[in-house]
Specification:
Elements (H helix, E strand, L loop, with lengths): L5 H12 L7 E4 L9 H9 L4 E6 L2 H10 L6 E5 L2
Parallel strand pairs: 1-2, 2-3
Helix pairs in contact: 2-3
Length: 81
């Protein structure tokens, strides 16, 4: 992503996802203001965007990300430990 605003991230994610069926869009678990991206993850997963949620640091973040994902949409949860 090339933005810190969730609306811009969503627009960019949709563009990047269109590059091919094997593309996963990397979404940070928070922006630089430490605002969580769970709602963005939820929106993208519902739209069947393959996501790699990254920069996860805590077990609580893992739980919240997993809750936001769609089990029918492939995704990665990248934990930094």
């Amino acid at each position: 992503m090339f933005s810190d605003e969730f609306a811009d991230m969503e627009r960019q994610a949709m563009e990047i996802a269109g590059w091919g069926g094997n593309v996963y869009v990397k979404i940070p678990v928070t922006n630089t203001r430490r605002e969580p991206s769970y709602e963005l993850v939820r929106k993208l997963a519902k739209r069947k965007v393959k996501i790699n949620v990254t920069a996860i640091m805590t077990l609580a973040q893992v739980r919240d990300v997993v809750a936001a994902l769609d089990p029918a949409t492939p995704s990665y949860v990248s934990v930094f430990a």
